[in-house]
Design brief:
- The longest helix has 34 residues.
- The chain has twelve helices and no strands.
- The protein is mainly α.
- Helix 1 runs antiparallel to helix 2 and helix 8 runs parallel beside helix 11.
- Helices cover 71% and strands 0% of the residues.
- It has one domain.
- The N terminus and C terminus are likely disordered.
């Protein structure tokens, strides 16, 4: 069996497993969300549940549909996966405020142990490191750059295990990156809110450099695509340019929208209580949606 067909056939079993995982996550969230609704519908509004499910859907599209193996044929397919896993799905999942619904979706006997484990000092220390904007920014930038180095890119193309690890790295670092921007409950801001505008701006720079290399270079960055059949009517160099342009456009638009929302939060007047006294508002990305 040709290597490409063999890799695609191996991926179907993985797609089924990942689909079941997504279905379980959605069911757990919806169970917890429905249990929270009678107490207070405003704890997790309907639009948040929609955001969470949409984020899961985009993740599923990236890892458990034919798109999941399209990167074996085209660099543009790889870029679509990368954007879904790092740029689109994570902020939607965090906008869904998933912690409380997922917690309440667990069987009752598991809720207290989970809460107690979160209070464990090593777990809190790890959370402090992972929740740091500096760590999140560096992790996302490192994943982006490292997996587009030709040697590592080839490794991910030739090994099913490394291919899965690559996708997991994109998703995990994407979740870390968007955590301080969206600030879902129960996150606490580590940096002043205005720094998130700079955070997003500087995050575009590695993407801009990589996009420019792909779009303007007259050399094929990943020669393995020369051996792959079918490029949707594009030459390999045209496919490379399309992938670079897609990344530059999507990242720029999404990050610009996020930065605009943060700026609107900073410029908007504080809301007030019914008695006219100022209300201390927690300036979160999600409240501007």
């Amino acid at each position: 069996m040709p290597p490409l067909m063999h890799a695609e056939s191996e991926s179907w079993g993985l797609m089924v497993s990942l689909t079941l995982l997504m279905v379980c996550a959605a069911a757990l969230y919806l169970r917890g969300w429905l249990q929270l609704r009678p107490a207070s519908p405003n704890i997790v509004p309907t639009w948040r549940a929609v955001c969470f499910l949409l984020g899961l859907l985009l993740t599923w599209i990236a890892v458990a549909t034919p798109i999941a193996v399209s990167d074996l044929r085209m660099l543009t397919g790889h870029m679509v996966q990368h954007l879904l896993l790092m740029t689109f799905a994570p902020p939607l999942i965090w906008l869904g405020a998933p912690v409380m619904p997922l917690l309440y979706g667990l069987p009752q006997r598991y809720i207290n142990p989970v809460i107690q484990s979160a209070d464990w000092s090593p777990a809190q220390g790890l959370g402090t490191v992972l929740g740091s904007p500096a760590f999140a920014w560096l992790a996302a930038a490192a994943a982006l750059v490292a997996w587009h180095v030709p040697a590592l890119f080839r490794l991910g193309m030739e090994s099913q295990g490394w291919h899965l690890f690559e996708h997991a790295t994109f998703f995990v670092t994407g979740m870390l990156f968007w955590w301080p921007v969206v600030q879902p409950w129960p996150s606490v801001a580590r940096w002043p809110r205005w720094t998130m505008i700079l955070y997003l701006f500087f995050a575009t720079l590695p993407c801009d450099v990589l996009s420019a290399l792909l779009v303007f270079s007259d050399r094929i960055a990943y020669p393995m695509y020369l051996r792959m059949p079918g490029h949707a009517g594009l030459s390999v160099i045209e496919d490379q340019q399309c992938a670079g342009a897609l990344m530059w456009t999507c990242v720029t638009v999404v990050f610009l929208i996020a930065a605009t929302i943060v700026a609107m939060q900073l410029l908007s007047p504080r809301r007030s209580h019914g008695d006219g006294t100022p209300r201390q508002e927690n300036p979160r990305f999600a409240e501007a949606i």
